[in-house]
Amino acid sequence: EAQVTQNPRYLITVTGKKLTVTCSQNMNHEYMSWYRQDPGLGLRQIYYSMNVEVTDKGDVPEGYKVSRKEKRNFPLILESPSPNQTSLYFCASSEPESGGTDTQYFGPGTRLTVL
Amino acid sequence: AQSVTQLDSQVPVFEEAPVELRCNYSSSVSVYLFWYVQYPNQGLQLLLKYLSGSTLVKGINGFEAEFNKSQTSFHLRKPSVHISDTAEYFCAVNLFPHDSNYQLIWGAGTKLIIKP
Predict the structure, then answer these.
(1) Share in percent of chain A as helix, strand, coil (round to 5)
(2) Is A5 on the interface with B (CB under 8 A)?
(3) For residue range A76-105, what is the model confidence (pLDDT) as tens digits?
(4) Do A90 and B104 count as a contact with CB atoms less than 8 A apart?
(5) What is the spatial distance between Cα A35 and Cα A54, in angstroms, rounded to a whole number?
(6) Cα of B50 to nearest chain A Cα, Å
(7) Which of B43, B46, B109 is closest, CB to CB, to A42?
(8) pLDDT for B28-87, tens place per residue?
C-alpha cells in the first residue's frame, strides 16, 4: 500500500530536549516536505527536499533541521524545542514530474506538545 | 505576495443540504488550484484539482469546484452533504512553473460541520 508514515504520532516533551520525528514514504517520490498546522493558520511549510541531499527552507524553518540521506526518509529534528513549536506536524511527498500539477501525499500527522 | 483566502472558518449545514466552501486567491500569473480534505485525526488527501481546460472540476465523494479566472476564485460545492463529509477543507495554489519550489500556498481551512 502506497503510504507516508510518521513516528511518533503523539509526543509530549519538555523545553530543550532534542527530538526527531521520522517520516518515510514507499512511493519513490523525489519531493518531500514538512508542514506545521496551527488553528486559523492552515499549513505552513517548514522545509522541503527536491531529492537526496537537497534540502531548502520553507516559510517557517527557524528552530528546525532536516536531512535527506535516503530517498524514502526525511526526518524532522528539533534540536532545542520550545513551547511555540507545539503544533501538529505533517510530512508529505510527491513526484513533481508534471511541474506543479502533482498530488501531495500526506502522513497521518504528529501532534507535538512542548512543555 | 500571493495568498489564498478561505472566507469562512466554519460552515454549519444540515445533512442533505447543499454546501459551498469559498476560496479566493491573489495571483497575477496562471496557477494550479487544489482542494484537500482532512478527516478527523487523519492526514490530508486530495479532493480535486484544476490544471487547465474545463473550469468545472469533479472530485471524489461527489464534490466539484469551479475555477473563475476573472474573480480569482475556486469555490467547492456539493449538492447534498452527509455526516461523513464532516472534515476540514483546505484550498491551495501552486505557482509552478513560476515558482521552482513546487510550493503550495495554503488557505487557513474551512471546517464543515454537518448537523443531523
Answers:
(1) 5, 50, 45
(2) no
(3) 999 999 999 999 999 999 987 666 678 899
(4) no
(5) 17
(6) 9
(7) B109
(8) 777 889 999 999 988 999 999 998 888 999 999 999 999 998 999 999 999 999 999 999
